[in-house]
Design goal:
The chain is an alpha/beta fold. It has helices at residues 18-30, 69-75, 91-96, 99-118, 154-173, 195-205, 224-237, 254-264, 290-296, 305-318, 320-336, and strands spanning 9-13, 35-40, 59-63, 81-84, 122-128, 177-182, 185-186, 210-212, 218-220, 222-223, 243-246, 251-253, 273-275. The structure holds nicotinamide-adenine-dinucleotide and thymidine-5'-diphospho-beta-D-xylose.
């Protein structure tokens, strides 16, 4: 029987970003006894507005950097757990300039691990399936917890480094850790640089969606709310030192996703452009989440991708003021890259 861990004060790093803020809303809405402290540097990807509406007695917001050891000394002792989402998260940015990825994803995780060790605080590390590299389109296998690490991009290599440190801090120092590696998320509050929001907001702005290369690359889509529930399940019921893969059997190639977005938005299905491919572009990700499902009883609730996508299109349509300020600069950056 798994022991249940019941944290009362959690630090969520990167809680003003896409997945982190969805997790904070999930915790506040579903776990009334838990106080959340968000630690976020508010980089281009962070937005305080993502946490709007959360009562002050449930949330403390700290504008700061995970690399700041003195700040960690002030806030970590009060916490029972750190849930670590903060990262530089976009592959294309990591190709244009890898340095911030090393700083935040590698050094930042190191600083947090050291603070967690110093104050004996439980640590959940949020990672990605990209650490396993890619699969051939016709490979019958999916990634499992036993798949060897084989990252392709500067982004995924820094996430792989951070995973390795978490494992080492558990084994060598006995730090109470868990790791989750999740597939591609979609849903509200995702930055317009990412594939799905970029195409939805392009259509809303009268710009044609942009498909990299031939568009046959496959991603295994999961709604971010399912990811949040899985992280909470692993934090509270997962075995220490273990890794759990999170995925919802949502494999789709990029052409199919673009065509689905166009159809939902009432446009002809071929109304998009092929643009320059991403260097080193991973072909396919696919997750086998049997361990999480059988050991901890988690199941995805968003099993119909098209209806989740429709809701996401509605969210971006109704929240223009949220994404409009970042759209122009994001597209200008892509234009320079030929994408
Ligand atoms: P995001 O880019 O939307 O958000 C990242 C957040 O971290 C932002 O709020 C940013 O301000 C903050 N941040 C960045 N550097 C920081 C620093 N040095 N100190 C403090 N805060 C900092 O990212 P996301 O897509 O929400 O991803 C969150 C986490 O989930 C990442 O660790 C990512 O690797 C992982 N992940 C993402 C996906 C996905 O599909 N997006 C899938 C699996 C795992
Ligand atoms: O305009 C685009 N056109 C396009 O065809 C963009 C932005 C992307 N793509 C393709 C590249 C990928 O095959 O769409 C796919 C998804 O691209 P991204 O949204 O950039 O995601 P990906 O590179 O798969 O990584 C995401 O999932 C794993 C997150 O950004 C990572 O943080 C996470 O770890």
């Amino acid at each position: 029987m798994t022991e249940i861990f019941s944290p009362k004060n959690i630090i969520v790093t990167g809680g003003a970003g896409f997945i982190g803020s969805n997790f904070v809303h999930y915790v506040v809405n579903n776990h009334p006894g838990v106080h959340v402290t968000v630690l976020d540097a508010l980089t281009y990807a962070g937005n305080r507005e993502n946490l709007a509406g959360i009562p002050d007695d449930r949330l403390t917001f700290i504008h700061g950097n995970i690399c700041d050891a003195e700040l960690l000394d002030r806030i970590v002792p009060q916490a029972d757990a750190i849930v670590h989402y903060a990262a530089e998260s976009h592959n294309d940015n990591s190709i244009a300039d890898p340095e911030p990825f090393v700083k935040t994803n590698v050094e930042g995780t190191f600083r947090l691990l050291e603070a967690a060790r110093k104050y004996d605080v439980r640590f959940h590390h949020v990672s990605t399936d990209e650490v396993y590299g890619d699969l051939a389109l016709d490979d019958p296998h999916k990634f499992t917890e036993e798949t060897p690490y084989h990252p392709s991009s500067p982004y995924s290599s820094t996430k792989a480094s951070s995973d390795m440190m978490v494992r080492a801090w558990h084994r060598t120092f006995g730090l109470r850790t868990t790791i989750s590696n999740c597939s591609n998320n979609y849903g509200p509050y995702q930055h317009v640089e990412k594939f799905i929001p970029r195409q939805i907001t392009n259509v809303l702005e009268g710009i044609r969606p942009k498909l990299y290369g031939a568009g046959l690359n496959v991603r295994d889509w999961i709604h971010t709310e399912d990811h949040s529930r899985a992280v909470w399940t692993i934090l509270t019921q997962g075995r220490l030192g273990e890794t759990y893969l999170i995925g919802a059997n949502g494999e789709k190639n990029n052409i199919d996703v673009i065509e689905m977005i166009l159809s939902i938005m009432g446009k002809p299905s071929d109304d998009y452009d092929h643009v320059k491919d991403r260097p080193g572009h991973d072909r396919r990700y696919a997750i086998d989440s049997t361990k999480l499902q059988t050991e901890l009883g988690w199941k995805p609730l968003y099993t119909d991708f098209e209806s989740g996508l429709k809701k996401t299109v509605e969210w971006y349509t109704e929240h223009r003021a949220w994404w409009e300020p970042t759209k122009q600069a994001t597209e200008a950056k892509y234009k320079k890259q030929g994408q």
